[in-house]
Amino acid sequence: MSLLLLAMWGGVAEAGPWTRGFGEHYVKLGSDTYLPFRFEDPVRGVVDDTYVGELISAYGEVGLTPGHPIQLTASVPLSIGVVNFEREQGGIDVTGTATVVRVGDIRLGLQTALLPPRIAPVAVGVEFKIPGYANDSVGQDEGTWQTVFPRPGDGQLDMTVWLLGGTSFLGGKGWVEAWLGYRWRSSIFMGWTVDEDFVDFADSIPFRLTVGGRVGPALLMGQVDGWVNAVREDLTREAISVGPAVLVDVYKTLAIEGRVGVEPWALKGAQGVSVGVGLSWRSN
Amino acid sequence: MATRRDVLRFGLGTLVFAKGCDRLSLQVDLSNLPDVIDPVTPNEAFYEQDCCGQPELDAEDWTLELALDGEVLQTLQLADLVALDAREKEHTLQCIGGTRSNQQINNALWTGLPFVDILDAFGFTVPDSVVQLVFYGFDGYDVSVPATDIEDGPLWLVWEMNGTAIPVEHGFPVRVLTPGRYGTKNPKWPIRIDFVSTPHLGYWERLGWSDEATYKAHTWIASPPDRSSVPNEPLTILGVAFAGTDPIESVDVRINGGAWQPAEVTYAGGPDVWSLWRFTLPAQGPGEVTIQARATTQGGVVTPDRAIVDDRFSGYDASMAIVLDVLA
Fold first, then answer.
1. CA distance B149 to chain A (A)
2. DSSP string of A206-243?
3. By CB count within 10 A, which of A198, A248, B68, B206 is most buried?
4. Residue A191 DSSP one-character state
5. C-alpha span between B238 and B286 (Å, rounded)
6. Cβ of A93 under 8 Å from any chain B Cβ?
7. Among B139, B134, B164, B152, which Cα is nearest to B43's?
8. Cβ of residue A102 closer than 8 Å to a chain B Cβ
9. Of the candidates A88, A144, A235, which has its C-beta nearest B226's C-beta?
């Protein structure tokens, strides 16, 4: 089980298609909690164990270049997974809790504007997902109980290319943006020994649609995001999340952020609710 | 100003941070450890596993189609089967995905008949061209077995479990028993048996699980659970040994990698039936103690020294070991 969906999203004040100019920046320290209400392992079927996932992450954007905007993004999460399980062995009921703490999936990206900002906010970007953990090490000292420990992620390298576009309205108080991407799921596994004949994640098409507006000191936002697999197969999770987010300036450009995401649709994995809070600071 | 030692310490700290940490907390009622494992598992305690959820079936509406390469040639109802002169068969099932922490193996007394007898009773002849039987379940499950299993197994159809109609969670109204092969090849809720002339890959096999799915000789340690904290006194270790159609001859146990010592086989199951064993662990003194069990079959197979499965998609095939924390 992993928190891939949460890790897609940076924060309320992220640049989106408005690529940051030279020296502009946005950083956020956040905590997101994921509570599945259902988990279907694509290989084992529905699993009755209960799970709580926590991501404590640092996210940042910075404009790198004067003139034509090029932006660097980075996200480094600490992943905490807790599974409560019940097993029966020889007529003995065993209940237990398995906790895993690891650096999660690190994301690094570059984005550039396709058009001059004064014409239209359209951008393209590329993002790499790099596992910061070794799935082989998860629970390795716990003998027969190793298999109950949740893995922090899929343990392999991904590359996503994005096309972003948006527009503002109401004199700049409101905005809408759309993202569409293609994600290549490589078979480059890091720290995880797998049989590549049977563990081969499908490429996917991630997307996002956001509508937001400023109301006083707050930014309010509604968002739909997720991904669908590029091919029909039985292993790779797909999910869509819907929910609101808010940013409230507390001191100049220092802000508190909050969000809720509900997954009305998810296949071949967890389906649940995520709740996040964060503290952010931006240059403008 | 950072010194070279400071940089090294930060680097090591980062390495540990990246390595992460794991924590396991178990709650086991050690005051309620069993003295023996029931040789025949009650229906309510029998493990459950399915692909697609349990269906709602009405016995009066249930039919079993017999087809040849997709063409239905005959349809049976439950009344047709129960009218036959049924026999009882003791038979152990194990999930191919069973792990040391979730062993999913149980034994029951089933009532039914060998499939070859059922086919004879209804005048169904299997052509020589048939290479497999493909079972289709009411839940959408599909699985295949070699046609030779009809007689070599022999394959059974059963309609009672421990003296009562098979509970719905275990396959009501009829289940297939395929001797020598893991639970994936013993489908529940069959509604069609297709005799096919070309091989078919079933539901779990398409996801990477073994298509041959023959039982591997192995041991389980059932009690106490691995990583339990136990008192510093003699302790009864209970376990299972199973190798499918090859009965278990003996079970041995070793402590902390020492010499193998014989365990008591408390239930000597024959072909297709598990064997149960017991070992009294002497008081070891405080600290960690490792207990491992191996089995020898009547066919001469000895389970390997390793406790880790070789190929988890083919079933557990090793000598299970547990680590206990003996308290002062």
1. 26
2. EEEEEEEEEETTEEEEEEEEEEEESS--SSS-EEEEEE
3. B68
4. S
5. 21
6. yes
7. B164
8. yes
9. A144
Contact list in B for residue A42 (CB cut-off 8 A) is: 207
Say whether A96 and B25 touch across the interface (CB within 8 A). Answer: yes
The predicted complex's ipTM stands at 0.85
Tell me which chain B residues have a C-beta less than 8 angstroms from the C-beta of A96.
24-27
Q: What's the CA gap between B102 and A147, in Å, rounded?
A: 9
Burial B217-231 (b: 16+ CB within 10 A, else e): bbbbbbbbbbbbebe
* CA–CA distances in Å: residue A203 to residues A6, A230, A249: 18, 5, 38
Sign, CA torsion B248/B185/A147/A195:
positive
8 Å CB contact of B226 and A99: no
Which H, E and C letters describe A66-96, residue by residue? CCCCEEEEEEEEEEEEEEEEEEEECCEEEEE
What is the spatial distance between Cα B36 and Cα B42, in angstroms, rounded to a whole number?
Answer: 14
| Candidate from A98, A138, A234 with C-beta closest to B207 | A234
CB contact under 8 A, A95 and B26: yes
Residue B54 · residue B254 · CB < 8 Å: no
pTM: 0.79
- The predicted-structure confidence for A227-255, as pLDDT tens digits, reads as follows 999 999 878 999 999 999 999 999 999 99
The answer to whether A137 faces chain B, any CB pair under 8 Å, is yes
Summarised one tens digit per residue, pLDDT across range B32-87 is 778 889 999 999 999 998 888 788 888 888 999 999 999 999 999 999 999 999 99
Coil, strand or helix at B282: coil
What does the alpha-carbon distance between residue B190 and residue B118 come to, in Å, rounded to a whole number? 15
H-state helical runs in chain B: 4-19, 78-82, 115-121, 149-152, 203-206
Do the beta carbons of residue A15 and residue A71 sit within 8 Å? yes
Contact A94 B97 (CB under 8 A): no
Q: How far apart are CA A247 and CA A173, in angstroms?
A: 14
Q: Six-digit token pair at B7?
A: 């940089």
| CA angle (B306, B307, B311) in 5-degree steps | 85
Would you place residue B9 in the very low, low, confident or very high pLDDT band (cuts 50, 70, 90)?
A: very low
Return the SS3 of A27: strand
CB contact under 8 A, B20 and A100: yes
Q: Does A196 touch chain B (CB under 8 A)?
A: no
Residue A267 forms contact with B (CB below 8 Å): no
